[in-house]
Amino acid sequence: MNNLAWKFNRLRTMGLPEIGHRVRQAVQLKLESFMLARSKQQTSPRLSRFGKPWITPLPCQFGAGLYCDAADRILAGYYDVFALKGVHLGFPPRWNRDPKTGIEAPLVFGKTLDYRDERIVGDIKYLWEPNRHLHLTTLAQAYHLSGDKRYAEGIQAFLDSWFDQCPYPLGVNWTSSLELAIRLVNWSFTWHLLGGGSSILFASEEGQRFQRRWLDSIYQHCYFIAGFLSRHSSANNHLYGELMGLFVAAITWPCWQESDQWKAQAYRELESETLKQNASDGVNREQAIYYQHEVTDMMLICWLTACANGIEFSQNFSSRLERMLEFIASVMDVSGAVPMIGDADGALMVHWSKEHDWNVYRSLLATGALIYDRADFKMKAGSFDDKSRWLLGDEAKSQFDSIATSGVRVKPRQEFREGGYFVMGDNFDSDDEVRIVADAGPLGYLSIAAHGHADALSFTLSVAGNSLLIDPGTYAFHTQKKWRDYFRGTSAHNTIRIDGMDQSESGGNFMWLRKAAVLCETWESNPTRDCLVASHDGYARLVDPVIHRRKIEFLKKEKMIVVEDVLECSGAHDIEFNWHFSEACQVAVEDNKVVAMVANVCVEMTMPHDNFRPELVCGNDELPLGWVSRSFDEKVPAPAVIWREKISGTARRSTILKISSGYNA
């Protein structure tokens, strides 16, 4: 019944062109499933034609220890897969088995396998993650740095086992083109780190057979992706990642007559999708900051691979990439933290760095500092990380160090009107900074808005690099519906929920039906105050419609945030003001005042209205309420304050936050 409801809701999000596309695709898949015995056979690859690595010479000025230690753990069969740390999956693992639940997915025709059904595949995120083969690149890094043949032989053993257990086109690893694409990217980097077509792995007769087997699978991956790209309402970051994989593969292995066609198609669509999926102000239209990181990383991989092989992306592509890095720098506080707005799945395209406490966002800015000669990016990055060295080469470190920062003032862009975010505050990137990131943007991208959260008019607050008001994150994706609904719902965000309903109506884990439309009415920033006024119509769908208008004003001299909410309606409604604090905060409630302290920072929150009595909640499973998830499938209790009231007709409420420092927590 749930599956039927999902299909009905999914149909509601489609226009006639997409319905026609889906019907044609369903017929095609039926035909393909009947013709499994006639799987696509490619011509013999041209072994004299291979692309150049992303950088020449390949970097090698690393201490090999971290990379060899990581590779040794893999050879011993130990992996980190999201919340599973150091889990023993064996060497090699069982590729069709979910390491979390132990469920073994069946070897049936992959394109029609329902990977959303956890009874069949378990938790698909956990099953797919090892099959992206990020650990293969780790083994290749260790081999490249140490020359130890064990790591190269381990790569061959892994791939041979994968070819045996995952025959084309059967099973869950031949279901999603994005999964194939990320696997191809890791195969490409692994190939080059092994020495490319001249690798010692291919020197013997047996090695030649292994090379041909690998190339056969590469062709099958490219053929699959090219014929099964995400289209219409699914053409979000999935399509971008699929094009990335096809583009990188066609350049790395231009071995077949179709290779030039694949490369040209991927290049053309990457240029187009870069501008479609990322607003001109640099905000990725998924409205999810972690996906901002993922798509930026995809763009970097394509850009570096292209440049190394004599292909140039347009100035529009380069400018959009720089703008996206500017957005990351603008929402990042002085400690290097960014708000966890929208979905986050914990994914990396390639697991380059093994550094302790490595920061994905600072790493992107370090890379961007060198590409665009941006001193402000360098200052925000703080240091040059291993990932940037792997991508840009050994000389990049000295070039990074030579970027002059003396006298450079880092002032963030504050207005991202097209993307819908506004950065408020004072003393940015100093020990005394106040940084507020307010959300007045759309729910998400395309008709399903797959990775957006119902968080309109919410905001986060960081003071002196300490998170106070937070976005609690994501936690769950395909499974654990209760938690998926909570973390993406309105009650998990610093905004108002009305009549116990989310601002937007969910139709499934990655689908919104009726979507709140947000309007930025005014924005002002000057030396004394920042002020945003915005509204949304998410509750206009109620029998008695409600329009929510919020004014967020930061008074810089007073270090005070004044939030004024107006609820325009005629009838009676239950309203909830939700405020979510970092798990590091000590929060106390006194009458109608909330006091939150962290490090030497104190915030006093008051709502001067007699009918309000705040309730402090921390780690409640039943509501649920009072949680934060900083990593996929991991959550911890965190203080949340909720104010409840019944209103009758239009109501105006004010919340005041006074910021002080110098306390000793």
**Corresponding CATH architecture of the largest domain:** Distorted Sandwich
Overall structural class, as computed from helix and strand content, comes to alpha+beta
Helix content: 25-40%
Alpha plus pi helix count: 18
Mean pLDDT: 95
- What is the number of beta strands? 23
CATH topology of the largest domain: Beta-galactosidase, Chain A, domain 5
In the sheet with the most strands, the strands line up as 11-12-13-14-23-18-17-16
Largest sheet: 8 strands, antiparallel
Distance between the termini: 52 Å
Strand content: 15-25%
Instruction: Give me the Rg, rounded.
Output: 26 Å
- Specify the oligomeric state: single chain
CATH C-level class of the largest domain is: Mainly Beta
Number of domains: 3
Shape: globular
Low-confidence stretches: none
Describe the protein:
Helix content is 36%, strand content 20%. It is an alpha+beta fold. The protein has 3 domains: 57-235, no CATH class; 278-406, no CATH class; 415-661, Distorted Sandwich (Beta-galactosidase, Chain A, domain 5), CATH 2.70.98.70. The radius of gyration is 26 Å and the shape is globular.
SSE blueprint and pairings:
Elements: H1 2-12, H2 16-34, H3 64-75, E1 78-81, E2 84-88, H4 118-121, H5 124-131, H6 134-146, H7 149-165, H8 177-193, H9 205-226, H10 237-252, H11 259-277, H12 289-308, H13 315-331, H14 360-372, H15 375-381, H16 386-392, H17 396-402, E3 415-416, E4 421-426, E5 434-439, E6 459-463, E7 466-469, H18 481-488, E8 496-498, E9 506-508, E10 511-512, E11 518-525, E12 529-536, E13 547-555, E14 560-568, E15 572-580, E16 586-590, E17 593-598, E18 601-606, E19 615-618, E20 627-631, E21 634-637, E22 639-648, E23 651-661
Antiparallel strand pairs: 1-2, 3-4, 4-5, 5-6, 6-7, 8-15, 9-10, 11-12, 12-13, 13-14, 14-23, 15-22, 16-17, 17-18, 18-23, 19-22, 20-21
